[in-house]
Amino acid sequence: MASSNSGSGGTGGEKPEATGDKAAEFRATLKAQLELLGTLLVRHPGVSGTLAVAAGYFLHINALPLHWDSHDALLGLQCAVPIIALDSLLMLPDWSPGTTTKVIKLKAPKSVAEKLRQREAASRAAKDSQQQQGGREQSSAAVITAVRDADPPSRQTDVASPTSTSSNGSSSSSDSSSAVQPAAGAAGSAAGVSGGEAADEELVDIERTISVREEQHPALAALYRVQMDKAGNNVGRLLWPPLELLLLLTWHLAEEMLYRAIILTWAAGWTIDRLYEAGAEESINLLGLQLATPQAGAVLAAVGCSAVSLAVLVQRAFFPLRLISRAEEELDAREGESRAGPEVKKERARMRKVLDKVRSGMVRQRQWSTAVEGTRNVTEWAAYSTSFLLTGNLLAPYVTAVASDLLFSGYQRLRARQVDRTQQQAMASIRELHSTALALKDARKAVLQPPSVPASKSSDEEEERKGGNGSAGDSTAAPKDSSSSSASTSTSNGGSTSNGAEARAKEEASVGGSSSSSRDSE
């Protein structure tokens, strides 16, 4: 009864713990989201709004001329249609280049290549019953394992030879000098055979199929580049959708206050004053249109602001080209100052060709990309400014910006997922190819390294060690030999002395016997 109660109590205690863990995780995530939102609000809308309020105070311009008007809001939605259409054309289609397969060849020893083919056949058989991604990872692991396990038997012989030599060298004290030399000779011959086999092993080509991009027209390549830039250029992508909506509302309000309420209003007033100072009447004929002077001044101010923003875009886009020009100038200066040899001149000519190739490709790409981005920026600025100039209400450009940017944020999230998947697949292929190349490189080093060089070094070191031990052994063996010779001499002398004593004893015995026999006879 007690055990059943304790079990039920334990089960009832696990649910609150799990709920508590989820609540703590939610609180931590919410805290991180709010911190990120606060950082983004301070960094972007906070700066723009502060500048707008400060500039309006010093220029005596209302920084927030906003009031609700359904007609102005509807006009803002109408002005957002061109931007929405252009963003849909830019973000919805897949402008990525097609992929094609390319076969590359890697050099590898024949034994390694054979093992790779066997492993690849096994991996292809196993891949049929698995998913494509899992099969790719298994194939990569099988290839790398096969390369690392591909160790020729000759290297094992080389590794085993010094061990046998050392074991033979330490067998016994009486046979050390006679046993080490044959073992060293056997090790040297084995090393020479294995080195010849490894050095003479045939190299074969291992084919690898990789995916590469197809060539695109510069216009399509520019659309793809702008699409990738716009897909990743969303600071609110990490936020929850409600928090991102709050960020967009605050962001665009601060931007419209700065750009339309302050900059455009000041530029329009300044242009109108200049027109009146130039002697303009109540109406001006502007490109075949009869406009009032204030309207003409506002239009000219909007066009001037668009031109300035486009100039900034062009300067930013072509800044890398100026870096290449500086590099070419430095190269020319070095060529004029130094007296280089033919090899250095050849290297500089090669560098100049590379710079020219990079410049030509970059110029074409930048031109088309700048044209695409410039078209979108001019359309966006024209729509925002038109809605504001026609109404004088900041609500109209605010509705235009929010409506277009909400759809654009959805396009960014949709395209960003595809971009992430494409990048992950590309990185997986690159890592697989890189790992295979490194494994082949290690295998080639292990197989193709001539072991005769380290064997000769080891034999030389071993001979030096043996020579040192031999000299020491000779110096120690000399006393032993002298002592053994003296011992043998003393032994021989002792043997002769004992033989002489025995002879004298026999003579005395014979003398004594003869004398006794003579006495007996007497």
TrEMBL record:
Residues 129-140, 161-192, 482-501, 510-522 have a biased composition (Low complexity). Residues 115-127 have a biased composition (Basic and acidic residues). This is Uncharacterized protein. It comes from the Eukaryota. Residues 115-198, 444-522 are annotated as: Disordered.
